[in-house]
């Protein structure tokens, strides 16, 4: 199977359920909304070592937000129990503290409502206010008044969408990964939570040599030791592999992101092969076939 | 006391000790080093609700790094016990996973060495390697080989440097805060951990009305309710207050940052007054006098 | 007339015809397309002293371009005669020379086709090639092959859309101007050609004192000398005025941009009044009423 | 000759004299100084088709500028006669018009002083003012007062510093070119005037096939037609070539830039060879040997 001269392996990415909340952050300028959104979605690449997975979903122009100011929607993804705390803390520490911001329910879905009781911060000086037809709280702070819609919708979404880009040079694979992330950024409903959207260090469960390790490098996909690894998955001539990991609010979003990302990667010169990671269907119920990406 | 026509209150910021680790992150490009550094220092505005305080200290040109690639140094600040975990997790989840990065000891100080035993991730395929005269580990990963110096120096530094900018309009105060952050970015040894470097919502300990709250809005510094707050600190005509909070490796760094920041803020039209926050000397041993800033 | 508490003067912006060409620039990454587009639209604020007016119209995702790579569309605006040269030179010097770029006809309109005969640069090594169903030339260069569609459509559009933002502080007016530019960036078919989209120095035709000057400061709109200028247009309390100038492919685009920009500016705290510039209807046939902006 | 495993050809770049003016642009924020500097240095890649060559030299922190605000220095390079007009027009159209900016003499050298008589724009409302010990004009404009030092120093500098980066993939060469540009950005006294600092389309004088062309593609350095060009300079396995062109205020600056750039490029994986362009010493008096770069 080929697309634009690149080999696509006939395999699939294996996704699994994750809880996803969408928060809308607006500010007086695009830049300040971005700074708040970036801080709020930092240290959030993987639930293995971070408290959650999070990322910026997309820019919202003034015409798309309740207070008619520019904004960004972010997605916060993790287990149901942790989600409540993560949404609250990331808003309280990274958005409430950011100049001129306001927070609205991004309505990821109606399955669950996460309460974000920040109005108590107002110590009695807070008041109810309607903004764009929405009931909000207005909390007096140093910078002015912080507006917040205190209920944020969460939905059982999909984690673990992924594909791997193999390049004839490290830079071919890297720029292709960047192109994939750029393309996925235009797909609503999903994020690529790793730094710059790209994973450089894939892992396997456990370790053959160090029994105390819960995870270790996935040697089969490491080009620099391909000659030493009997069951290497690195084709001849491949110098680097980068993975794109996708979380989304539903299967359709992850599907669309996989398609946009794979095609974008295949348009960068020097990409040799695309494959995807799965656990033989044992981990999750969602299969994203690479053949559906072209 | 005045500087450039702006009133400086004769008061001081009260700093207290914090443990600080400096990590150097390099990459094939300035952009990728920045992306990794941003992810690694996210969700880290205040130890009240975040696991640590962290930020980018400065850009390092290729001539300043061990592997002669562009990089950024970051500071991670928190209690001694939490620091070890934060340094390890933020490197493991946000830098190791980022394309083309390497990690070196930024040598915040020699008081303590934090071990970052990431080489076990290599599952036996790792090897020792010398880079720029430094003993490192080379860990095979999908993107190539991840180079890491596994010992990161930490030092007992200073948290809580701060000053408050009062403006005749919200935007005067905001742009002045931005100018202060830009100026402080050029001062080595310190960071401004809040979103975009600025604090919009100052807090007081506890709450008068809601006893279950550990902190609540500092109503004395809230312009929108100045008329309702008897002991308000808001001068007539002030529409907004933004705070700059500074953490540093030592007193001298925070002093230099206070000076650079205060002066920069005072050069923005519409800034009316600068003051600083303290707890009467009960919280910390370090006093940063505003009069020393001019 | 008021919007969000801001006074709108009952006046209009006076637009006049200008020739507009739209060029689509794609590249291997969003960043490289942006760098080429920025270089190609530089030194192009006003036809008074620059060879043309130009700017980035909008980002195009991979799904919107002929070669399925990310890109930007730019508008180049000036007199009909100069347009041909400006389109050719700006493509030849600023896009052909930029890594991985391709150029396509942005189809501003069908009134005129500007030939861009760059294939001769190939010195006989060039060849015809079809990209996304479009006949293009492929020109061998150092970086690979440069793809160009050699016909660029131009249309008789509209220049001189404008409005002026008056603020209670310089920073209120400045941030409002930025917000207006951000909002207009989402409106297709138009650009704001000045630096960062904002004009700081309005001019009047000629000079009262220096007869050799073709233009000089419009003293009626200068806040710092309001007390000295008898017929000043500066209301009490206004500290700064910034103007947004808009060029577009047609009246509808400029209308939409005026509306989006005025409303966005009015949402920034500290904006006091919005007005617009005209010459009593003597300069151009297009009137953009501020009352139609709300 | 090798550096970091990359072949350096034993050749040299041939530089020639050019007039260079340095202008310092400050603003209320780093961002606005950057926007003005970017506009003022646009459409300025090569004097072959642009009115001049120009670029941002470096960021200046508040402590380095006369008005203690953040800024950028730019270099404008061309023939002596055109330089006066280019400096004047680019300041008048791209900096005077940009919000909050001021202009100071960057003192490229004392050989020549370019007068920038912008104070006439004030129409008699202008006044002399001292800023940071420098005699300036203060010109009332809509945004406030525009401060300008009306004499800008120019010096006979050096154009045409260059080197060519050959990669085993297009992306290897591209990222190496970016790395070179990043490294050169830290070298004072020089610029890389092409888009993003990189040249994708090298040219030769004249054309073999089209006699009316003054310049055409340098087929010897075009990888995609290497098999058809008898005297190709493309080594086996090279997929792309990018050139870095450097202008500077003196030989030492260009030397330092060549060294920093070549070394940075050689640290990117996949770079095969570095060479440089010259005309056998017939064009210019300055020789920059690649062997001096390591």
Automatic annotation (TrEMBL), chains A, B, C, D:
Q: Which one of the record's GO molecular function terms can you name?
A: formylmethanofuran-tetrahydromethanopterin N-formyltransferase activity
- The highest taxon in the source lineage is Archaea
Q: Where is the Formylmethanofuran: tetrahydromethanopterin formyltransferase Ftr C-terminal domain?
A: 144-292
Pathway terms, separated by semicolons? One-carbon metabolism; methanogenesis from CO(2); 5,10-methenyl-5,6,7,8-tetrahydromethanopterin from CO(2): step 2/3
Q: Does the keyword Cytoplasm apply?
A: yes
Q: Which GO terms describe its biological process?
A: methanogenesis, from carbon dioxide; one-carbon metabolic process
Q: Which Pfam families match?
A: FTR, FTR_C
Gene3D superfamilies assigned to the protein according to its UniProt record, in alphabetical order: 3.30.70.520
Class of this enzyme: transferase
Give the EC number: 2.3.1.101
Tell me the first and last residues of the signal peptide: none
Subunit comment: Homotetramer.
Family matches, as NCBIfam families: one_C_fhcD, PRK02114.1
UniProt name for this protein: Formylmethanofuran--tetrahydromethanopterin formyltransferase
Starting at the broadest rank, the lineage of the source organism is:
Archaea, Methanobacteriati, Methanobacteriota, Stenosarchaea group, Methanomicrobia
């Amino acid at each position: 199977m080929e697309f634009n001269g690149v080999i696509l392996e006939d395999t699939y990415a294996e996704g699994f359920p994750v809880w996803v909340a969408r928060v809308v952050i607006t500010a007086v300028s695009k830049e300040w909304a971005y700074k708040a959104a970036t801080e709020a979605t930092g240290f959030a690449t993987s639930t293995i070592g971070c408290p959650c997975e999070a990322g910026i979903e997309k820019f919202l122009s003034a015409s798309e937000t309740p207070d008619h100011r520019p904004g960004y929607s972010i997605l916060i993804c993790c287990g149901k129990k942790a989600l409540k705390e993560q949404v609250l803390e990331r808003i309280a520490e990274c958005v409430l503290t950011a100049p001129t911001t306001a927070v609205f329910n991004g309505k990821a879905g109606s399955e669950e409502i996460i309460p974000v009781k920040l109005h108590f911060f107002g110590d009695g000086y807070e008041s109810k206010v309607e903004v764009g037809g929405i009931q909000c709280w207005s909390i007096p702070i140093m910078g002015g008044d912080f507006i917040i819609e205190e209920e944020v919708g969460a939905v059982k979404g999909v984690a673990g969408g992924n594909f791997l880009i193999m390049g004839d040079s490290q830079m071919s694979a890297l720029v292709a990964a960047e192109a994939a992330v750029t393309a996925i950024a235009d797909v609503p409903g999903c994020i690529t939570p790793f730094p710059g959207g790209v994973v450089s260090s894939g892992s396997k469960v456990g370790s053959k040599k160090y029994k105390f390790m819960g995870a270790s490098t996935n040697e089969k996909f490491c080009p620099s030791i391909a000659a030493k690894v009997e069951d290497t998955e690195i084709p001849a001539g491949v110098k680097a592999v980068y993975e794109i990991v996708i979380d989304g609010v539903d299967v359709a979003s992850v599907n669309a992101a996989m398609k946009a990302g794979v095609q974008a990667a295949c348009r960068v010169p020097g990409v040799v092969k695309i494959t995807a990671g799965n656990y033989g269907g044992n981990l999750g119920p969602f299969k994203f076939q690479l053949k559906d990406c072209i």
